């Protein structure tokens, strides 16, 4: 899992609270991390692979939102691989890890592995947090028609730049001037914890606000498109709102235990002796949330794919056809499926003069389609029958 305690453990003179959680059943904890991360890795890849039985469709032009969702999944996969590698080394070479606690030593590889693996995990999950924030920003800008594929370059610069800067800054402040002197005071640890939890707290605070504004903007678009707000438009707005709710629900489930655990450990650090009997319940709560973190943090990737795409099934198609993003399928051409008539051809055959005024409508429809789920055939029937898409 991703916790600033992983970097703190690399200090030979680590604090008592870090020592408490890192020495609590380390074999069990590492096994839990490996199991959870492995399951997440397999299920996430299974979700992203193309499936048999899906009719091949023409791939529409990629959107910035679909690219961001893919990058979030990639960050989760790479972060999970880091957890598996770190925990496997801890289980397979206990003597190698034990050298981290030795203050005066000549072997630097244990500390290098400890710091490197912890930074890898923190960097990837921190980047995932920034990408999730960018997704909320992009969703709002798409509805406001102020975003596109050109903005993905700015998102890359912001995400990787801030993730690397905060990670390096936090590590540098924690280990300054050397590993043997880190954690001598809270002035070393607090900046490191702040740089770790800033992107997490940003998503918790800013994303719900941005999602709420996006839903309000979508409702305005649906009302203004035809001048009416039918049941189909209302249900489409509800689908978009539910998608945002599921994303935030997954995030809260996977990372609320980290905030609770860090609050408990920080309080224990301030106590003269954390082994006192009155603190027994707090110690137990800290250890329980520590194990919960090992289970839930790695599972974020798979749960996010469920929120993004829904369950895509077990039947994998290894022919590697181009796979259409589900929520973009509503605005793609259906020629060749013979399931739904093409609204574009229907309109062009009846009223050719309307082509002049369709550009603005298409931009509105594209903005809505990139935010909606359309994970089932019933959702597609609902959306395509909606007046919002009759201009295609």
Task: Name the descriptors.
L-tyrosine binding, 392 residues, G-protein coupled receptor, lysosome, membrane, Rhopdopsin 7-helix transmembrane proteins, 14 helices
Provide structural commentary:
The chain is mainly alpha-helical. The chain has one domain: Rhodopsin 7-helix transmembrane proteins (Rhopdopsin 7-helix transmembrane proteins, Up-down Bundle). Helix content is about 65%, strand content about 0%. It is built from 14 helices and no strands. The longest helix is centred in the middle third of the chain and has 41 residues. The chain starts with a helix and ends in a 7-residue tail after the last helix. The C terminus is likely disordered.
Offer a concise description of the structure.
The chain has helices spanning 5-8, 16-22, 26-48, 64-92, 94-98, 109-143, 151-175, 186-226, 231-269, 280-296, 300-309, 343-350, 358-369, 377-385.
């Amino acid at each position: 899992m991703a916790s600033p305690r992983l970097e703190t453990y690399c200090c030979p003179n680590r604090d008592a609270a870090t020592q408490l959680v890192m020495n609590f059943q380390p074999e069990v904890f590492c096994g839990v991390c490996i199991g959870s991360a492995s399951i997440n890795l397999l299920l996430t890849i299974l979700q992203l692979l193309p499936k048999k039985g899906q009719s091949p469709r023409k791939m529409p032009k990629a959107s910035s939102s679909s690219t961001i969702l893919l990058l979030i999944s990639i960050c989760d996969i790479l972060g999970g691989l880091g957890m598996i590698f770190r925990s496997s080394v801890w289980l397979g070479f206990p003597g190698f890890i034990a050298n981290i606690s030795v203050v005066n030593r000549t072997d630097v590889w244990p500390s290098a592995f400890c710091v490197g693996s912890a930074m890898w995990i923190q960097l990837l999950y921190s980047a995932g947090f920034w990408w999730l924030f960018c997704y909320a920003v992009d969703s709002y800008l798409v509805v406001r028609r102020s975003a596109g594929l050109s903005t993905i370059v700015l998102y890359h610069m912001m995400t990787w730049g801030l993730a690397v800067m905060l990670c390096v800054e936090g590590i540098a402040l924690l280990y300054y001037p050397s590993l043997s002197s880190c954690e001598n005071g809270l002035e070393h640890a607090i900046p490191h914890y702040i740089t770790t939890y800033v992107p997490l707290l940003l998503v918790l605070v800013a994303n719900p606000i941005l999602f709420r504004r996006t839903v309000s903007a979508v409702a305005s678009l649906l009302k203004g498109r035809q001048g009416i707000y039918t049941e189909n438009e209302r249900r489409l707005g509800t689908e978009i709102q539910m998608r945002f709710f599921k994303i935030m629900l997954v995030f809260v489930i996977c990372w609320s235990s980290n905030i609770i655990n860090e609050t408990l450990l920080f309080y224990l650090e301030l106590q003269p002796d954390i082994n006192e009997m009155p603190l027994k319940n707090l110690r137990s709560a800290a250890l329980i949330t520590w194990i919960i973190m090992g289970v839930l943090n790695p599972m974020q990737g798979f749960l996010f794919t469920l929120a993004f795409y829904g369950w895509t099934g077990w039947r994998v198609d290894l022919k590697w056809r181009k796979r259409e993003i589900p929520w973009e399928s509503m605005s793609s051409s259906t020629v060749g499926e013979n399931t739904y008539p093409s609204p574009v051809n229907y309109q062009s055959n009846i009223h050719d003069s309307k082509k002049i005024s369709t550009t603005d409508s298409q931009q509105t429809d594209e903005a809505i389609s990139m935010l909606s789920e359309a994970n089932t055939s019933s959702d597609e029937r609902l959306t395509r029958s909606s007046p919002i898409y009759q201009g295609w």
